[in-house]
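Study this protein:
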Amino acid sequence: FEIDPVTMSLIVVLVCFLLALAAFAEAKSATASHILVKDEAKALEIKESILQGADFAAEARAHSTCPSKNKGGSLGTFKPGQMVKEFNDAVFDESNPIGDVIGPVKTQFGYHLIQVSERS
């Protein structure tokens, strides 16, 4: 069984392409902000306020129990697996549109309202 040089070149190119594609697929990241509160009722109240026009960052500063509240709830950019599972799943779920307020999402820390500003 022999492979001619042209076929071998095509195989090498294809393998390189597939490896690059796999690396690109794994290089996901997201940029998000959140508001963390102790109970679901408070989270729902804040979410309604945001849906009625309140600023997400201002609500984070006023209500969040996370130190990120000092940055308007900004968590910066992170990769899959860097946050707790429930939070991670909500952020990287493509069915949650960029800019929408997601949640409340319950984690071991409390209830989160999440706003994803970028996903790649």
Q: What stands out?
A: The chain is about 40% helix and 25% strand. The longest strand covers residues 110-119. Strands lie at 30-37, 74-78, 101-107, 110-119. The two ends are 43 Å apart (CA to CA).
